């Protein structure tokens, strides 16, 4: 599973040299919080602080000069991820006392983090932009469906605001990790579903289920629970149409995309048959480093039905 754009069309490459004027109409910025900071970015990498642990990870969007020197980065970092292939790699320990497992807080939630061979540590911090949206919209008793739900951050945010949450992921280890995060956050009763997200959503539609919020963070590519191949661009319209059918009037939909094959215009076209433009926000998701570098993380569709 990759959350990274691998390439972008030249029309979209205009942004991201770090400090140019932002086109704020089409951007939303996630922000760090006490336990997470994007410290710096550049030279194809990003330097991040997760609680006490500082990592260096590859970042294809960081095609500009970093704010700090290589020596600054090495002095701060505990771990550096070294890619062995486009999908996997190993972590190099830069400090003898560096932890491989640790936890961080986000508001009242607690997440267990660890070093994975896919360069991720168990949280996509740019999703903070969606967590604040969810927190502002969800009311006690709302039904929220989280598809491609990973380690459960969005599920926990919705649950902590009183939602009944159905959390769907096709990988058992991800459900276990999310369940562990639920326990660490002293929450209960999230419904865990190990299944292909779209199959589950279509079954829910047939059953007549309806939701007050739907969150989808599909990978650009991946495998379903039975090894089915997944390419986002082939399923985008179906995902949006299925979500539309599952939404109560006034319900929200959040869809993140991280695929080079899905541009803002593709999101607009896929959403158009179901939602009018004044129901939808379509924009890029960005985050700014402590050193003032702006990083692009992907595209975002939000709808209020
Ligand atoms: C990009 S991650 C989601 C990140 C998460 N929403 C967050 O920000 O915390 C994608 C997730 O989708 C899951 N996945 C991949 N293909 C799937 C499929 N066909 N059905 C359900 N889950 C799938 C992966 O196991 C992974 O946990």
Automatic annotation (TrEMBL):
Q: Which UniProt keywords apply?
A: Methyltransferase, rRNA processing, S-adenosyl-L-methionine, Transferase
What InterPro entries does the database record attribute to this sequence? Glyco_hydro_b, SAM-dep_methyl-trfase, SAM-dependent_MTases_sf
Q: Which CDD domains match?
A: AdoMet_MTases
**GO term, biological process aspect, one:** methylation
- Record's superkingdom? Bacteria
- MF (Gene Ontology): methyltransferase activity
Q: Membrane-spanning regions, if any?
A: none
Q: Where is this region: Disordered?
A: 1-21
Is S-adenosyl-L-methionine set as a keyword in this record?
yes
Q: Where is the S-adenosylmethionine-dependent methyltransferase domain?
A: 94-225
PANTHER family recorded: SAM-DEPENDENT METHYLTRANSFERASE (PTHR43042:SF2)
UniProt-recorded name of the protein: Class I SAM-dependent methyltransferase
């Amino acid at each position: 599973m990759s959350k990274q754009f691998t390439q972008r069309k030249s029309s979209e490459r205009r942004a991201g040299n770090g400090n140019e004027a932002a086109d704020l109409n089409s951007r939303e910025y996630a922000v760090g919080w006490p336990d997470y900071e994007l410290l710096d970015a550049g030279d194809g990498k990003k330097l991040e602080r997760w609680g006490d642990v500082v990592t260096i990870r590859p970042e294809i969007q960081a095609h500009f000069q970093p704010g700090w020197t290589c020596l600054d980065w090495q002095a701060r970092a505990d771990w550096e991820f070294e890619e062995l292939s486009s999908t996997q790699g190993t972590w190099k320990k830069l400090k003898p006392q560096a932890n491989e497992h640790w936890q961080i807080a986000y508001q009242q939630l607690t997440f267990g983090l660890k070093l994975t061979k896919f360069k991720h540590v168990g949280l996509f911090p740019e999703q903070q932009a969606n967590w604040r949206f969810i927190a502002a919209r969800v009311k006690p008793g709302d039904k929220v469906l989280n598809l491609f739900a990973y380690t459960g951050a969005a599920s926990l945010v919705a649950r902590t605001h009183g939602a009944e949450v159905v959390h769907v992921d096709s990988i058992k280890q991800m459900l276990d990790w999310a369940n562990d995060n639920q326990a660490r956050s002293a929450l209960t009763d999230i419904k865990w579903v190990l299944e292909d997200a779209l199959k589950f959503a279509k079954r829910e539609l047939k059953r007549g289920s309806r939701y007050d919020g739907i969150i989808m963070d599909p990978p650009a590519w991946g495998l379903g629970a039975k090894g089915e191949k997944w390419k986002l661009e082939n399923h985008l319209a179906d995902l949006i149409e299925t979500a539309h059918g599952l939404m109560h009037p006034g319900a929200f939909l959040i869809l993140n995309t991280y695929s080079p094959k899905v541009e803002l215009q593709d999101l607009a076209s896929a959403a158009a048959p179901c939602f009018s433009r004044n129901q939808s926000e379509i924009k890029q998701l960005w985050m700014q480093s402590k050193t003032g570098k702006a990083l692009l993380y992907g595209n975002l569709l939000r709808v209020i039905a």
